[in-house]
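Please decode residue identities from the backbone states below.
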């Protein structure tokens, strides 16, 4: 549990926009579980909407494997298809 001490709303508002530090800021005001629940819900909802629009198979499975053994470059070839 977090020590019960006063927190500055201005500092907490500033810290919430910095990645990774936002987790610490929500932990300090004892809202970390709610924050993580909301972030996971947003990610899952985005994934469901994206795969329902583009389709799971065509969006993820049609991309070639990215290998270092490709003859075009050390990073492989990225073919984008619409």
């Amino acid at each position: 549990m977090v020590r019960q001490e006063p927190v500055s709303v201005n500092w907490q508002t500033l810290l919430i926009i910095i990645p990774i530090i936002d987790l610490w800021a929500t932990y300090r005001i004892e809202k970390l579980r709610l924050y993580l629940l909301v972030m996971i819900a947003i990610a899952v909802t985005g994934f469901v909407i994206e795969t329902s629009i583009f389709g799971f198979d065509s969006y993820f499975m049609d991309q070639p494997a990215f290998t270092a053994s490709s003859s075009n470059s050390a990073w492989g070839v990225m073919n984008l298809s619409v």
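Observation: Residues 18 and 31 are 17 Å apart (CA to CA).
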